[in-house]
Write a structure and sequence with these properties.
It is built from 3 helices and 4 strands, in the order ααββββα. A hairpin with an 8-residue loop joins β3 and β4.
Length: 139
């Protein structure tokens, strides 16, 4: 009987099927890692934007409390609501506060509560992720 060299068709198909399964599993793992890293980057960006907004407000507190906040810098749109003032800081408002290489998307919504008897001065910060939130928050 003659000695066989090589693999049978069944053996080759089994190896190809196993390799295909491994590639599929690896593909799903890589995809989920990429999605998580994008989410982490977005969380860091939101945090940096809110920190920058806090810095803007801290440096310009007298403008928020005694003057029209829109006079601070362009990119800030405010609406006075009597006991509160709601301001939206958009991309232009972060000039000089965030790195120019930052991919700034969305906005930061700052709600300022005016101090009055029984009520302390308060700033609340939130992130607006889309154009609708950023445009409607100041109205």
């Amino acid at each position: 009987m003659k000695k066989k060299n090589g693999f049978t068709l069944i053996e080759l198909l089994a190896v190809i099927a196993i390799l295909g399964l491994l590639v599929t599993i690896a593909g799903f793992s890589v995809t989920s890692i990429l999605k998580k890293s994008k989410s982490d980057i977005n969380d860091v960006q939101k945090s940096r934007m809110i920190d920058a907004a806090k810095l803007i407000v801290m440096e310009k507190t007298d403008k928020f409390t005694y003057e029209d906040p829109r006079s601070i810098i362009s990119g800030i749109n405010c609406v006075d609501r009597g006991s509160t003032c709601k301001c939206v800081i958009t991309k232009d408002g972060f000039n000089g506060y965030l790195d120019k290489t930052d991919n700034i998307t969305g906005c930061v919504i700052v709600e300022y509560t005016y101090p009055r008897p029984g009520v302390e001065e308060e700033f609340k910060y939130s992130y607006g992720s889309n154009e609708e939130e950023c445009n409607n928050s100041s109205s």
